[in-house]
Amino acid sequence: MKIDILFYPEKLKNAEDKAVVVLDVLRATTTIATALAAGAEKIYPVSSIKDAFSLKKKISGALLGGERGGIKVPGFDLGNSPLEYQGLKGRTIILSSTNGTKTLKKAVSAKTLIAGSIVNAKAVADYLLKLNLDVVFMPSGTDSQFSLEDFAGAGYIISLLAEEKKVELSDQAYVSFELARINPPEEILTRSFHGQRLINLGFARDVEYCAKLNLLDVVPVGRLQEGRLVIESSRLFR
Ligand code: 3SL
């Protein structure tokens, strides 16, 4: 299994035969995993607030979630704090966040598109082992820049893969693996630029939650449905 990781959400190339794992550990992909674990049926990642409101008109009962600058968008039902996403059985969520939902949309050319995070690292690793495809990790970054938490987040998943299978790591993937090997998630997330920004905005509990390794047994998988990306929990192979 060949494993590579991008530094930030640059253009994805030659992913048609690969599994692509998009990470926005703080907080969008953690929120997606949490929402699905709380029973949400479908999540539609959308890029703009305008698209979110117009999609809501087409899907009755859908909840709008997301943030700009970390703060809930006026008129939305939920922000982007995973702690808000509870008791969602059968609900549809339309999610728009600054970086994460845009990155997910950039990865639609993947053979299999997965939303990864630290809270579901083991579930994602087990799923990747069963898929047995080469893997590209795609960090969402922070405002198009490198982000420590996504790079290390991929490393926790790579460590789990490497325990079970012979993996061929690119140079970047090796750095991500080593970073995760020597640093616990709480330290990485608290130290990161975005972690500090969230703590200063009053979201310290979110940062703590997003660092909980292997908390959730859920794999969010994306597919195109009528030209639109939808994320659901995969029960395939599980
Ligand atoms: O950028 C994003 O997609 C967000 O997850 C950022 S925040 O953690 O909600 O501020």
Automatic annotation (TrEMBL):
InterPro entries: ComB-like, ComB-like_sf. One of its GO terms (molecular function) is sulfopyruvate decarboxylase activity. Its EC number is 3.1.3.71. Belongs to the ComB family. The gene is comB. It catalyses: (2R)-O-phospho-3-sulfolactate + H2O = (2R)-3-sulfolactate + phosphate. This is Probable 2-phosphosulfolactate phosphatase. Keywords: Hydrolase, Magnesium. Its cofactor is Mg(2+). It is an enzyme of class 3 (hydrolase).
